[in-house]
Design goal:
This protein is an alpha/beta fold and about 525 residues long. The chain is built from 15 helices and 17 strands. The strands form 4 sheets. An 8-stranded mixed beta sheet has the order 5-4-7-1-9-11-2-12, sandwiched between helices.
């Protein structure tokens, strides 16, 4: 988008643990998400969008920065995004945007804004170093690790912590939208709304649970794999959160999937409320909407749950973009969250170069239908492992490489379920060797492992110290200015604030105040 043109507003909606493969727009036959489908029909849907890492914080930080998170030490869910690393919020704010966050972004450390000018809620997860893995003792089970309790207790709910949080994030975002659109000024806005659902625990609000019957819920295509049939990564996940400590019945698995679909429908309803708020504010035609998720959910496929693997159910995310200047299309070539920052740079016509980024701009695709390169990378340095794992997704192939695990290579066009590891077959030897050499050239896996362990040691020491004695929390505390709320008598130029927020606008209808 060339300089000099009026910049569009941006509404960036982020769900948590929403798998693209569980959405009707991506071919799922059961889940109901009409607002997402409607948005996809009027914009661009990327059929094969991938997160940077199958874990919340590293995924989000890669998305925000356009760089692999290992490049700046964001290895796991207790890692910091360094304040000196620019995010796309910094770039948009420099271009004149008013940037605001309502909801979660999993920021750890003292910087709780990272380019956001305003933040409406606290985070849902802790902002300290309490969730640091220990690669020196990978067999140790930390108290905060996942278990299968969430699956065993899945079902309908009338109220939950995640519902409380998501409702607050949505309500505050709607209020902010109406207030900002009603204010005078030429600055476009970039509003991020980021919610918890459909992340486990699998508790679907009853209203949406009742949209589904038990009989229509699809069960995992492949049942739980036994020892000897699991890949090494799958075996690690078994040891991490399963261990047969909480046996699951077919009914419990079905209930967990039903609750997950109910949570998707809730998220879809939330999206509908946000888009309706744009309509009410009169900003819909001037706003680009971007919808994605930080990662997916295995949801019982191959006996796996949650994320932390490189199967498509865990790393393929929805990515839908609609609004002024965006083509109506479905794009098949693989793209990455790493591509978002350079895309926003091009959208605003920034003179900042893309050098040093791991992603490439999708703006030519969004605006003109140019096919993306179909080539991306990913990584994992979190719990459940004891060494980095790197991924290359190129064309029809996905390749995984680690110094501590056997390689994995899948032909996703011939084997969408990723059941046949071609790396074990002699015919793929040359391709595996070439891809392994590429990974080794891009990542210093030995040095990276040493860096991860050193960082873990430092953060555990710091956390132990900071929770001893008086605790000074890093958690963001939203500031509420009661003097600027509702009817007050401090501003003689605003005797009737209701007139500014009222929709349809009284001011517009009567030609001015």
């Amino acid at each position: 988008m060339a300089r000099g043109r009026k910049l569009p507003n941006i509404l960036f909606v982020m769900f948590d643990q929403m798998a693209a493969l569980s959405l009707p727009s991506y071919g799922h036959p059961v889940a109901k998400a009409p607002n997402l489908a409607r948005l996809a029909r009027r914009g661009t849907l990327f059929e094969n969008a991938y997160c940077t890492a199958p874990l919340c914080s590293p995924s989000r930080f890669g998305m925000l920065t356009g760089m692999l998170p290992s490049r700046f030490g964001a290895y796991d869910n207790a890692a910091e995004l360094p304040a000196e690393i620019p995010t796309f919020l910094h770039h948009l704010r420099s271009a004149g945007y008013r940037t605001c966050l309502s909801g979660k972004m999993d920021f750890t450390g003292a910087d709780q804004l990272h380019g956001y000018e305003e933040r409406l809620t606290t985070d849902l997860s802790p902002s300290d170093f309490g969730w640091v893995p220990d690669w020196e003792h990978p067999e140790a089970i930390q108290s905060w690790y996942h278990t299968l309790q969430s699956v065993a207790e899945a079902g309908p709910c009338d109220y939950s912590l995640s519902l409380q949080y998501d409702e607050d994030a949505c309500d505050r975002a709607v209020d902010w939208l109406q207030r900002v659109v009603g204010e005078k000024g030429e600055r476009p806005f970039m509003l991020t709304v980021s919610v918890m659902q459909p992340h486990d625990p699998y508790q679907g609000l009853r209203k949406f649970w009742d949209l589904y019957s038990a009989d229509e819920i699809d069960m995992p295509a492949e049942p739980k794999r036994k020892a000897g049939r699991r890949t090494q990564i799958e075996e690690r996940m078994y040891r991490l959160y399963d261990r047969d400590e909480i046996p699951l019945s077919a009914r419990q698995i079905r209930d967990a999937r039903r609750a997950y679909y109910a949570m998707i429908s809730y998220c879809d309803d939330l999206l509908g409320r946000l888009t309706q708020a744009l309509e009410v504010a009169g900003a819909a035609d001037e706003t680009i909407i971007v919808v994605t998720s930080d990662h997916g959910d295995m949801l019982g496929e191959r006996g796996l749950w949650y994320k932390m693997t490189f199967h498509d159910r865990a790393i393929r995310v929805p990515l839908i973009v609609a609004g002024p200047g965006i083509k109506r299309q479905r794009v098949r070539q693989p793209v990455s969250h790493l591509d978002l920052l350079p895309t926003f740079l091009d959208l605003v016509g920034s003179a900042v170069r893309h050098d040093g980024l791991d992603g490439v701009s999708l703006w030519p695709t969004l605006a003109r239908g140019v096919a993306p390169r179909g080539d991306l990378v990913g990584e994992y340095c979190g719990e459940g492992y004891d060494a980095p794992v790197a991924m290359i997704r190129r064309g029809r192939h996905k390749f995984l490489h680690s110094r501590h695990l056997k390689p994995e290579l899948y032909d996703l066009e011939a084997d969408a379920g990723e059941l046949r590891n071609l790396a074990e077959e002699p015919t793929a030897r040359k391709l595996v060797e070439a891809l392994a050499a590429e990974v080794e050239a891009r990542w210093d896996l030995v040095g990276l492992r040493a860096d991860v362990i050193a960082s873990q040691r430092r953060r555990r020491l710091v956390h132990q110290a900071l929770v001893t004695g008086r605790v000074a929390a890093w958690d963001f505390a939203p500031r509420v200015d009661a003097a600027a709320a509702y009817y007050r008598n401090y501003d003689p130029n605003m005797p009737d604030p209701d007139r500014i927020l009222r929709r349809p606008s009284v001011i517009r209808r009567r030609g001015g105040a």
